[in-house]
Design goal:
The chain is α/β, with parallel strands linked by helices. It has helices at 15-21, 26-33, 54-59, 72-84, 94-98, 100-104, 116-127, 179-182, 191-201, 217-230, 246-254, 269-274, 282-294, 314-325, 342-349, 375-389, 392-414, and strands spanning 2-7, 40-45, 62-66, 88-92, 109-112, 134-136, 162-165, 167-168, 187-188, 205-209, 233-237, 257-261, 298-305, 329-334. Keywords: Iron, Iron-sulfur, Metal-binding, Methyltransferase, S-adenosyl-L-methionine, Transferase.
Length: 415
């Protein structure tokens, strides 16, 4: 069979931002890597600017599409178009896993959960024309056996920053996060596999992809020790509390960590506590960020607004907090109830969802009734935070700080 593997991405004001922020989508690449030799495939990553051509549609017999929630309506439209062209169509990914009945309307088959464990069975069924309406994986992928990249496709040159899969899942269970409901537990690849892959890639600037890279300090120490020998620079994602471990911060810096996404989310500890993220203590942020800065690590975080614990003064509090703790890169956004999360289920129960249009679920629209303010007040507050934190004076300050740590290239790309 000829197969199209598609990461769907809708046209939007944030298309360039998504392209800039996105790293190679390991989900679709590991599917391609698990493809039996009898099949041919093409990868279309719309996030990265790829366009599906008429020739590709005529060439293929089966298409599998994945998309995040704000892109899912576009994915459904694409799925319908492909079905009309007589392709077998499969939908997969987080949104599809959490709302399989909705997705099933647009596809011949849906995958619930991780796709790799059911992929070969699905392809064998499709080959015989016996595709089932759904496939569900009951076990998590064995990271020791996972091959994250297809050998046949020269993908590395298509992405600015090469991503290396380190782990999937998170041991925490924050109410607004889709990671835990999707990946039932946290698993990491063997360190030797990660190191071999980096060495083979020849890349010197990488994103190490794990939902919470430092949550197992023993694993993280082993990884950083081996990484140091490769003399690479890398960016990653870990909760800020990892910086309580001074030796681990130093090991991370020596292994090439230059830029860290920490997921502080809000300066309100009551809000973090209610969201199941009380282990992050805003009162410790200043000291921990200073420790990261002392090791020349640039610190990036979303600051989310609209938690039930947020009163109208949260906007001014956040501006003062960000200035005080010296965050380098800030993304002020609305907390968004993604399907599958406890937060979504709570708002659904309380009849507080305001939008049925998945395209609005992009963290830039208010899609639910906030508890202590109107949607308009929430929107105005976030605009005020953005305008204030991105004033010329504050940007220049952050620019100077990031330049002193990582040079002009990183500061011009980030601040
Ligand atoms: S710590 Fe981060 S990745 Fe883990 S559940 Fe919370 S928000 Fe999600």
């Amino acid at each position: 069979m000829n197969i199209l593997i598609i990461k769907a991405s809708a046209e939007s004001d944030f298309k360039d931002y998504k392209k800039y922020m996105s790293s190679p989508p390991q989900g679709i690449f590991s599917l391609a890597a698990a493809m039996p030799n009898a099949h041919s495939f093409e990868i279309i990553d719309e996030t990265n600017g790829d366009k599906l051509s008429k020739k590709q549609i005529e060439w293929a017999q089966l298409a599998i599409l994945t998309a995040s929630t704000p892109d899912i309506t576009h994915a459904y439209q694409l799925a319908q178009k492909l079905k009309e062209s007589s392709l077998m169509v499969v939908l997969s990914g987080l949104h599809v896993t959490f709302l399989p009945s909705e997705a099933a309307y647009y596809a011949d088959s849906v995958i619930i959960g991780e796709a790799e464990p059911v992929w070969q069975t699905l392809l064998a069924d499709a080959d015989k024309g016996l595709l089932k309406p759904s496939y569900k994986s009951n076990e998590q992928v064995d990271m020791g056996n996972l091959n994250p990249w297809p050998n046949t496709a020269d993908l590395k040159e298509r992405y600015g920053t090469w991503g290396v899969l380190v782990g999937r899942g998170c041991k925490n269970s924050c109410s607004y996060c889709t990671v835990r409901p999707f990946f039932k537990r946290e698993v990491f690849r063997p360190v030797s596999h990660v190191i071999d892959e980096i060495r083979a890639s020849g890349k010197k600037y990488l994103e190490l992809h794990a939902d919470n890279l430092c949550s197992d300090p023993d694993y993280a120490f082993e990884l950083f020790t081996e990484l140091k020998k490769l003399k690479v620079q890398w960016v990653g994602e870990a909760t800020l509390d990892f910086a309580e471990n001074e030796a681990l911060v130093e090991a991370a810096a020596q292994s090439g960590l230059t830029y860290l996404l920490v997921g502080l989310e809000t300066c309100s500890h009551p809000a973090l506590k209610m969201a199941g993220k009380g282990f992050i203590k805003p009162a410790r942020a200043k000291e921990l960020i200073r420790r990261l800065h002392d090791n020349d690590i640039v610190v990036d975080s979303c600051m989310l607004f609209g938690f039930d614990e947020h009163e109208k003064d949260i906007f001014d509090e956040t501006i003062a907090f960000v200035d005080d703790v010296k965050l380098d890169v800030i993304h002020p956004n609305f907390i968004t109830p993604f399907p599958g999360t406890k937060f979504y289920n709570q708002l659904l129960r309380e009849e507080r969802l305001l939008s049925n249009d998945w395209a609005d679920y992009d963290c830039s629209h208010v899609v639910f009734q906030p508890k202590h303010m109107t949607p308009q007040e929430l929107e105005n507050g976030v605009i005020k935070v953005r305008d204030t934190l991105y004033s010329t004076g504050r940007r220049l300050k952050r620019f100077a700080r990031v330049t002193s740590m990582q040079g002009l290239y990183v500061s011009s790309m980030t601040t």
